[in-house]
Amino acid sequence: MAYVEAAAVLYLRTLYGGVDPVGPRHPPFTPLPDFVWIELGREAATMLMLASVAYLSAQTQLARIGAFGIAMGSWDIFYYVFLWLFSGWPGSLLAPDVLFLIPLPWWGPVLSPVVVATLIVVGGAAVIARELGDGVPRPRGAHLLAIVSGAAICLVAFMSSALLELPHGIEAAYYSRGGPFPWLIFLAGALLGGYGLLRLVIQPRA
For residue 113, with 0-12 CB atoms within 10 Å meaning exposed, 13-18 middle and 19 or more buried, which class applies? Predict the structure, then answer.
């Protein structure tokens, strides 16, 4: 799936100006109606396929969630690996990129989704290992709150440019470009979510 994603993005970006979404020759990120809805559908279809693989790969709901984490995180990491092999881009882990379009455009340096994807893969693997061993204990409210809050903070960091333009309309949000990435906000979210996930998988069985 990562190979397919990288190939599709390479074709689309080449047609619309270049693989680098903020390069000097790349036109503004334009929300052309047909293009955007097709792209949103492709992203949703990708999530559905990854979820289907996760559902079929395990027997319990927790293990399926863990499998989805492994599948989604691996897909995201290897998407950049294949894109680099195909085109030589990104030339740096700090290269800015448009990461996702649902529900608003996500912008950030390539390193940021790779960090999140790594956390998701490690967390998913830990959940599966624990579920196949002595079982994952009932999650505590504080741990779930940390995970959800951390994820929400990371999303705010990714969508900060679009959120700032949203009062001017949805079209303005889609025309927005990623400005300086809010690293402090992102790292706070990643650390909080990672802490909650760690506490969830290492807590002893009651």
Answer: buried
* Furthest-apart CA atoms within the chain: distance in Å: 59
Model pLDDT, residue 33: 47
Beta-strand ranges (E) seen in 34-120 are: 96-100, 106-109
Q: Which of 86-95, 183-192, 195-204 has the lowest mean pLDDT?
A: 195-204
DSSP class of 195: H
Q: Name the token pair of 16.
A: 């619309």
The pTM for the full model equals 0.85
Residue 54 token pair: 């996760």
Q: Which residues contact 31 (CB under 8 A, 6 or more apart)?
A: 171, 174, 175
Reported as a single tens digit per residue, the pLDDT across 103-153 is 888 899 999 999 999 999 988 888 888 777 777 667 778 888 999 999 999
Query: Collapsing DSSP states into helix, strand and coil, what is residue 135?
Result: coil
Distance, in Å, from the CA atom of 160 to the CA atom of 117, rounded to the nearest integer, reads: 19
Domain count, the chain: 1
Domain that holds residue 118: 2-202
Whether the predicted pLDDT of 25 surpasses 80: no
Place of tokens 């390479």: 10
Residues 95 and 13: their CA atoms lie apart, in Å, by 15
